[in-house]
Amino acid sequence: MAFRQALQLAACGLAGGSAAVLLSAVAVGKPRGGGDADARAPEPPAWTEGAQPGPSLWDSNWDRREPLSLINLRKRNVESGEEELASRLDHYKVKATRHIFLIRHSQYHMDGAQEEDCTLTPLGREQAELTGLRLASLGLKFNKIIHSSMTRAVETTDIISKHLPDVSRVSTDLLREGAPIEPDPPVSHWKPEAVQYYEDGARIEAAFRNYIHRADAEQEEDSYEIFICHANVIRYIVCRALQFPPEGWLRLSLNNGSITHLVIRPSGRVALRTLGDTGFMPPNMVTRS
Fold it and tell me: Is 260 in contact with 274 (CB distance < 8 Å)?
């Protein structure tokens, strides 16, 4: 029965949220009592008056790793039926949770003539030390550090790595700073050229798709990964991971050296444990430059 239902949903294009809409509509429209039951829809709460309707369903296949979506239902053995489907689904079933720590680089010299001249300030180096100490104090078995190839991110990584000496590190251009998508509402003090959104946006979206997803099916244990990059990149990733409108990324604010903790469960559910945490720094050392 389960196999036939899955096949019907796939054939009708009702996978994920669409199927939920259909089932919800049936449940709401069906009287709970006998034929005389009142089937009128309940009135919405008063606080919703004037609110604009919008998407409210979670896309469980946001990373395209939902097991059912990885199976070609047309290629099946009719005789084995549900047993074959269950076996194939089990092959793609995720078992582990991914913990992703997004670290913004520390304070840096913003007046450098070239990107290579934008090195960390003395305060920025102290911030990175505190961030490294904080990560080390968590007592987690970090699997790897992936960092932006920009100077300020590399220097921040150098300092943090001293506190996590056994953790391997990888540099990537995908995590470099940029303009991910035109913000809404717009701001007057920052107006990149349209071509910058076009070029940077594709790269930062590629970083999201490449790094932010549920664990591979082969992964047996939970993983703890550190990404050291930039405010715009982190803010965009958070909005995308939570399925919030990505145009709202500029409404978030991140301190230098801050820690943002995302959790991706085997089911694909995403939770935000912390956003821009710098509670481990003295107030006089907190900056956002």
Answer: yes
